Amino acid sequence: MSNTPDAPEVSRPVVTPVRIVVALCLVAPFVAMLWVGSYTRTDPTFIGIPFFYWYQVSWVIIAAVFMAIAYKLWQYDERTRKSGGRS
């Protein structure tokens, strides 16, 4: 295969520190929910609700915050990559 000037340029995926943080933000809620042994208890209760339930419900809010952070960081990373690394 020859490198012709009209051949489309294929860009490889880039791993940046920002993208690693994005990945961690997206994975954290899954890890928290899949690690069942960490929350299979009833104490401490919160306004009469056992820990097992309020822990899971609180992760709905925490996951939404992580998703918003991941989205904003992804936008920032895309902007900086398109501008050539300048902020």
From TrEMBL:
InterPro entries: DUF3311. The chain crosses the membrane at residues 20-40, 52-74. Pfam families: DUF3311. Keywords: Membrane, Transmembrane, Transmembrane helix. This is DUF3311 domain-containing protein.
